[in-house]
Structures are given as structure tokens and as C-alpha cells.
Amino acid sequence: MRRWLLALGIALVALLAWLASLDAPSDESARAPDSKPAPVTAADADVRARLPTASTDAATSSERAAVEATPSDPSSRAAVASEVPRARVHGRVVDSMGRPLADAHVELRSVNLVWREGSPRAEHEWRGRTRRGYGIATSSDGQFALDVPVPTSDVVILGVEADEYHDTHRRTFGDAGAQNARRLGEGDHRLGDIVLALKACVSGRVVDPTGAPLPNVSVAVGKSKPMSEARDSTDAAGRFRIERAPLGKRLVWAERSGYLTSAPLEVELVAGAAIEGVELALRRGQTIEGVVVDEGGQPLSRVRVLASPIHGGNSATARSSTDGAFELALSEDAPHRMEIEHAGYDAYGGNGSDEVLEPGSRGVRLVLRRALQFEFRVVDAKTDAAITRFGLRAADAPDSNSRWSSTWEPSAIRDAPGGALTIYADPAKHWIHCEAPGHAPHEGPIAADEPGGTRQTLRLGQAGRVRGRAPCNAQPTVRLERQRIQRSNGVDFDLSPFLGRVREATGAFDGSFEVGDLASGTYCLDVLCADKATTRFE
User: Fold this and answer.
1) 492 HSE (CA, 13 A, CB side)
2) Burial of 125: CB neighbours in 10 Å, binned 0-12, 13-18, 19+
3) Domain range for 393
4) At 110, which CATH number?
5) Tally of structural domains, the chain
6) Number of C-beta neighbours around residue 197 at 10 A
7) Short-list 274, 190, 198, CA closest to 232
8) Final residue of a structural domain among 441, 460, 479
9) Is residue 80 part of a domain?
């Protein structure tokens, strides 16, 4: 009996506790009125939009739309932007004495102007101008740090610029111009000290013999004329200022078309100092006047005439007018060698020619001879079928007194209806170069099919190839040179200067290589590996 009453009491207590819980407020209603819910991130909102809760199921369509739009608000965009990989580029800018340079400009810019695909264009301000890329000024101790998105551009450039008394600096990230520099990737890039060499400045003005200022005059600084190391142009008042000029003893001179180059002035340039008040005078130069005509005496217009001083210096150029007339304004008071290259005509004058004229020459008559036109028909050597796509060009014949060894220059491949093309070519001066896909290239003298004719048939054989594998841990460079060898008293002689041309190719990362479109013959093969000595085969 006692046990039954005890069990009944426990049951009553449990029932009362259960009834009390039904009247208690929920957690949500028990929360203080001024308390706020935990913040919801963009990721949370995105999850709720994709996995609806009971409350979102019961929401209206407009409420659901608001939930789904949450990832596009500014805070969400910031969250997404934070996921873009970053690169930190930092270092210190100093002068050649190791002293830090404050307020130097450091910038990173993309070569193709697009830093990262899909991102806004990067711009920054520097000295009142808007510049492309990311930029910053160095601190008082020369330090700088650029925290930028990792670029998708293959090549970016770091530029550093201080004042006019210090040189500039440029560094490339990415493979530009075969520099094989590493790309700007994610993470930390410490550049150490970037040294800007100390420079000097030169300023002054340029005038004519009357003392009047001369604008648009090029003023140069250099060790010897005409090799300049720094330049500037005069303004409307004839003033110039050459910044970042090299140190030590230098020459300063001025030059402008139609004026004789000024006598060079010697100066001593000191680091961090400026030489001011330099005055240079120019006077009008003499001219060479004449006319350009063809063999029939007809004037030729738009012909570029070049006159070069025989002892070096600035050349003068002019184009003939509709009546063939030209006037060359000389910058050097010396005899000039004439030279003309005009499409459809043989070259006139040039180096080694006797076409030399004195300053002040008048009534000069330059006669151009029309270039010969040759038709070349290209066929397959085995089937005699016409080849309708090939490259063709006429080039200077090799010098018979020296071995012709140069890199192969491919011709532009183009369509040739009927397998024939007509170009300007002179058998007395040119060799013909021809190549077609899948055929061995042809180089050789121009020889008409019939005596006195202007047509030649070129028969191209099937191409050969050389392939192999080099035992190196990088891409090998392959140089292939065709040879024709005659042995005499133990000495090898190359009988053909033409065959001395060199073909180059780059192999794969596993060391394999292949060079195709080769004519039959004996070749010398050089395999160059960065980690091994050059290997030669014949």
C-alpha cells in the first residue's frame, strides 16, 4: 500500500511539471525586446535561398525574391571580392648611396591594359594625372607595399620613378621578350632594395643667328655625337630641360631638320646638380634639289629620297611631289650619298655607290630603272602537279667571296591560283626563295626556263624531318645547318655559301624535338640544353 501511494505521488509531480511547461513563453518570445538576431552572412542567405526553412516556405513570392537577392548586395560583393587571390609586392627604394628615397612613385600595370578579366579597370592618381594600374608613394624610409589582386594578364610591369635627379627602374613579371621572368602570382613578393642611380639636369635655350628662339629643336646629351644618352625638345620660347642626364664629362648639342647641327658644347655633370643657362645657336643648312623620273623621263611622285652624310651624322629625307621634284634640307655641311628604294623599281644608290652630291646641288636628276618582273610556276617535283599555296620572295644573292650563314627567314604563305606568281626579281642580283607546306624549301639563282625569258618553273620535293630527344630537364633549343662537305687533306670545306643557312626550333619539356620541311642533304645538328653542354651531331 505504501509503495502504491509513493508511485502515485511521483506521477502527480510529473503531471504538474508538464502542465507548467505548456504555459511557459518560447525562447523567441522570451528574448529581450532590444536584442538583435545574430548577423546573417551572404553565404547564409544563399544557403537559406537554396534550402528553404518552414518560414521561407510560408513567405510570399516578394519575400522569397528578397532573400534570393541578398548575395548581390554590397556586403556580399565584398565577401565575393575577398575570395580573389591577392599578391603583395613590397620593398624599399634607395639611391646609389643607399639612402632611402621618400615620395618615389611605384606602380604596377598590365602590358595589355587589362589587369584582371571581369574586374574594373585599375587606375590611380599621381601628381595630378590619372594613370593605369596600381600605384603608391614610398614612405619616409623608402618602403612601399602594394596589395593587389593576382592579375590574369600574362605580363605586368613594375615601374619606379622619383625626381629628375634619379634614374627610373623597370621590372617585368611574366614572359615578355623571352626574359622568362616569373609571373606575379598569389602570395608575398619581396623585392628588396631597388636602387635608382643619381643623375643630373641640363637646361637652357636654342636660338637662331638673330637671337630669336627656335621651337621644336631636339637637344641631346651624350659622350659623342650623334649617340645621345638623354634628350629634350624646346618649347615655343626655345627653352629645354634635360632630366636624368648621365654624370661626368658630356657633350650637349642641338639639331633640327633644315638647320645645321650645332657645335657640341662640353659640360661636366655632377650628381644631384643642374647646369643652367646653356645657349645653343642653329643656322639654316644648305639644300639639295632635283627631280625623280623613270627611264622614259616621266616624273615619279611619292618617292622617298634619302641623303646620308658620307662621314656620319644626321640624314635628310624628302618625298617627291606630283612633278617628281624634291628638296632635301641638310643638317650636316658635308657631301651626301643618295639612296632610293621604291616599289617596282631597282634600288638607287646606297652604301658603296658613287651617287654622292655636294650641299647646295641644284637641278639633280635621279633616274630609276623599272624592276624586272619574273613569273614563277611552282610544281610538285614527283607529280608535276601545280602547288597553289606557297611563299615566294626575291632576296639579294649571297656574296661569292664569303660563306653565307644566317637564320632562315620564312616567306609569307599565300594562295597562288594556277600555281604561279609574278614578282619583281632581277636574275643578276637576286636569288629566289620558295617554300610550300609539306614540301622542301627551295633557294637558288633565278634561271629562266628559256634563254631571254622571264618565267621559271620551281620543282619542290617532299619535305624531310629530323626528330629526337635530348637528355635535359628543360626545353632544348635545336639548331640545324645544312652542309655539303668536301674533305681535302683532312680539312672540311663547305662548297655552297647558300647551304650555310641555319634553322632553329624549340623542343618540348620532355626533351623531344622535331624540325620539319627540310630539303634532302647533310645536316649539322646542335642541341642546346640549359643544364648541359651543347651536343653536336652530323
Assistant:
1) 6
2) exposed
3) 373-460
4) 2.60.40.10
5) 5
6) 14
7) 274
8) 460
9) no
The model carries a pTM of 0.55
Does 58 score more than 80 pLDDT? Answer: no
Pairing of strands 105-110, 134-137: antiparallel
What CATH number is given to the structural domain containing 382?
2.60.40
Angle at 295 between CA 421 and CA 449, to 5 degrees: 35
Q: What is the dihedral of CA 354, 357, 362, 368, to 10 degrees?
A: 30
Let me know whether 158 and 113 are in one domain. Answer: yes
Mean pLDDT of the chain: 78
Q: Are the beta carbons of 70 and 49 closer than 8 angstroms?
A: yes
- The alpha helices in 151-235, defined as continuous H runs, are none
Does 512 lie in the same domain as 473?
yes
Give me the residue label for grid cell 538576431.
37
pLDDT band at 307 (very low <50, low <70, confident <90, very high): very high
What 3-state class would DSSP assign to 528? strand
Asked if residue 214 lies in contact with residue 180, where contact means CB atoms within 8 angstroms, the answer is no
Cell triple for 15: 503531471
Three-state DSSP at 344 gives: coil
Report helix, strand and coil shares of the chain as percent, to nearest 5. Answer: 10, 45, 45
3-state secondary structure of 50: helix
What does the pLDDT average to over 318-336? 93
Domain at 261, CATH number: 2.60.40.1120
Q: Which of 306, 338, 368 is the last residue of a domain?
A: 368
Q: How far apart are CA 396 and CA 444, in angstroms?
A: 11
- The least confident of 25-34, 233-242, 250-259 is 25-34
**pLDDT average, residue stretch 191-195:** 94
The amino acid at 111: V
Same structural domain, 156 and 186 = yes
**How far is Cα 319 from Cα 366, in angstroms, rounded to an integer?**
13
The Cα–Cα gap between 344 and 347 comes to 9
Same domain, yes or no: 415 and 385: yes
Q: How many helices (H) and strands (E) does the chain have?
A: 6, 39
Say if residues 192 and 142 touch (Cβ distance below 8 Å): no
Q: Are 401 and 340 found together in one domain?
A: no
Residues 97 and 192 placed together within one structural domain of the fold: yes
What pLDDT shows up at residue 496?
Answer: 38
Report the candidate in 199, 202, 123 with the shortest Cα–Cα distance to residue 168.
199
Please report the pLDDT score of residue 59 as a whole number: 35
Cis check: omega of the bond before 226, within 30 degrees of 0? yes
Contact assessment for residue 90 and residue 189, using Cβ atoms and an 8 Å cutoff? yes
Specify whether the CB–CB gap between 292 and 265 falls below 8 A.
no
Closest residue by Cα to residue 91 from 83, 101, 81, 82: 101
The string of pLDDT tens digits covering residues 384-438 is 999 999 998 887 777 654 444 444 466 788 899 899 999 888 888 888 888 888 8
Written in H, E and C, the secondary structure of 77-97 is HHHHHCCCCEEEEEEEEEECC
